[in-house]
Amino acid sequence: MSRSFGAVHAAQPRVSFFHLNAGAAFCAFMLAFVLLFAGSHMAAAHGFKVGDLEIEHPWSRAAPAGAKVGGGYFTIVNNGSTPDRLVSIVTEISEKAEVHEMAVKDGVMTMRHVEGGLEIPAGGKVELKPGAYHLMFMGLKRQPKQGESFSATLTFEKAGSVEVKFAVEALGSAGEH
Ligand SMILES: [Cu+2]
Questions:
Q1: pLDDT per residue over 29-40, tens digit each?
Q2: CB neighbourhood size of 127 (10 A)
Q3: How far, in Å, from the CA of 73 to the mean position of ligand 1?
Q4: CB burial class (10 A; 0-12, 13-18, 19+) of residue 106?
Q5: Contacting residues for 118 by C-beta, under 8 A, at least 6 apart
Q6: 21 alpha carbon to ligand 1 midpoint, in Å?
Q7: Which of 36, 117, 123, 125 has the fewest CB atoms within 10 Å, i.e. is most exposed?
């Protein structure tokens, strides 16, 4: 037992810091720094998967007191070879939720309910963001506060249902971080 353990241990490559020159040591330090930074960014930009779909960083805005509606944003990536559709959204904070599209037509801001679900093209992605496609949470049961998160179930025609967490960002946030 102790012999086989010793043999395995001896097979491990020996790495000595003192054999690295100053340049390599600096590179190693920079790499560690980059990995640390990338790690913290990935923690903030959370994501969810269902079937061939990836839902990246669902987020919402803190709502002012008395607000009856809120917006929801994320990017959906379809890694599959067939299109899919986001057909329903159920959240814990609102009575209903719909996919809306905001657009400026002849200088007038319009918002319409996307009927029949939001299509995510095969091998493509759809961004839900302020001023474009977004989820509209209607009949808020409570005001989402900055720093908290709330859950929602997204149902896709082919991929099925997935529970996601919306991170609540500052009132004026544009989703930049
Ligand atoms: Cu809307």
A1: 555 555 454 444
A2: 14
A3: 11
A4: exposed
A5: 85, 86, 99, 126, 133
A6: 58
A7: 36
Spatial CA neighbour of 127 closest among 72, 84, 81, 89: 72
Residue 78 CA to ligand 1 center (angstroms) comes to 23
Residue 69 CA to ligand 1 center (angstroms) comes to: 9
pTM of structure: 0.72
Ion ligand 1 residues within 5 Å by Cβ: 100, 111, 136
Cβ burial of 78 (10 Å; 0-12, 13-18, 19+) is: buried
CA of 120 to the centre of ligand 1 (A): 19
Q: How far is the CA of 52 from the centre of ligand 1 (A)?
A: 27
Q: Please provide the DSSP assignment of 95-113 as one string.
A: EEEEEEEEEEETTEEEEEE
Spans of the chain, pLDDT less than 50: 1-20, 35, 37-43, 176-177
Q: Which domains does the chain have, with CATH numbers?
A: 47-169 (2.60.40.1890)
